[in-house]
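User: Hi! I have a protein structure encoded as tokens and I'd like to know what sequence might fold into it. I'm fairly new to this, so please keep things simple.
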């Protein structure tokens, strides 16, 4: 995988390479914020991560397209939910080819309740693509994760208001797709606050 290809993966239908005008400045900040998302969330409040599921599956076409793999190819999936000050705020979904989950991205299987950032920001060989964003809808695999998080809080009807971002990390030529979305209660939590400054990622204590 050469640098140019890694930094400009193909966009699946519905994903946007730049922020649409409908987004607020706060939404633009978080949807295209570089660096470790968990580091930014910790500047907002106390972050707790819960693992929702880890499993092998066939790659959905939408995500396979971004990772440059065949639809249906075996992948390892990890889904988590991050809360900020007790408020469910950011569901996240990451997946990599199943073989890579035993090789280049084997650390993904050992994270437990630590954030994925602990594995990504201490290796200078890792390359990250630009972000893409979109409003989530049912054809997108990640939509079900967000809907489950909303339904658990009795807010399933707000699913149409959820914006997501994703990017692809590359190590040793192997992709790791990471998608994150921001639930409506997260934007309420930020109301009246300035966007926190960017800070280097700090490894979570073991």
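Assistant: Happy to help. Inverse folding works backwards from shape to sequence: for each of the 206 positions I chose a residue that suits the local structure. Here it is:
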């Amino acid at each position: 995988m050469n640098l140019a290809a890694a930094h400009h993966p193909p966009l699946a239908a519905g994903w946007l390479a730049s922020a649409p005008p409908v987004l607020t400045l706060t939404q633009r900040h978080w949807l295209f914020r570089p660096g470790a998302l968990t580091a930014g969330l910790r500047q907002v409040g106390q972050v707790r991560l819960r693992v929702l599921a880890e499993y092998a599956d066939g790659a959905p076409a939408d995500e396979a397209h971004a990772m440059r793999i065949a639809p249906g190819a075996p992948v390892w999936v990890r889904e988590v939910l991050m809360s900020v000050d007790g408020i469910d705020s950011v569901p996240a979904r990451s997946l990599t080819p199943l073989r890579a989950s035993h090789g280049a991205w084997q650390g993904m299987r050992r994270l437990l309740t630590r954030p994925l950032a602990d594995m990504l920001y201490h290796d200078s060989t890792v390359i990250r693509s630009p972000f893409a964003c979109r409003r989530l809808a049912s054809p997108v695999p990640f939509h079900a994760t967000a809907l489950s998080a909303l339904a658990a809080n009795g807010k399933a009807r707000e699913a149409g208001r959820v914006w997501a971002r994703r990017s692809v990390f590359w190590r040793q030529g192997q992709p790791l797709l990471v998608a994150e979305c921001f639930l409506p209660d997260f934007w309420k939590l930020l109301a009246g606050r300035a966007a926190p400054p960017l800070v280097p990622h700090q490894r979570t204590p073991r």
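A useful reference point when you look it over: Confidence is low (pLDDT under 50) at residues 1-6, 201-206. Feel free to ask if any position seems puzzling.
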